Amino acid sequence: MYLNRATIVGNLTRSPEMKALPSGQNVTSFSLATNRVWNDKDGNKQEAVDYHNIIVFGKQAESVAKYLTKGSQALVEGRLQTRSWEKDGQKQYRTEIVADRVQFGSKPKDAAPAPKPAASTTPAAGEVPDYSEEEIDPSDIPF
Description:
Blueprint: E1 6-12, E2 17-20, E3 26-39, E4 45-57, H1 58-67, E5 73-87, E6 90-104
Parallel strand pairs: 4-6
Antiparallel strand pairs: 1-3, 1-5, 2-3, 3-4, 5-6
């Protein structure tokens, strides 16, 4: 049995970049930073940062490009892939995570707050909301 699986949670180091492949499929690339903290043999606190290249395809690529920005937190699940190519006679390598799933986390602290709706749709205190009189069919509920 073989297993090629990666799961990481980190913060975006740059905003995602979306491109279209010649086939028309969208691909988005971005980078995540993860931190490690440990105590060395003398008991001193040590910290290190690792950077991970991520690529994601299809509809999920569109969502990532639309909603994530530099500093956003994300959980990525996927597989490791190493590509190689020749550049100036030197063989170059790049290892990246091809994402199967990207789950959005918290937004960066300096991100602008979401705009509030012009008119409030929530009832005022003591006011009864206007509920539909239509019957609910349990088969219409999506979960």
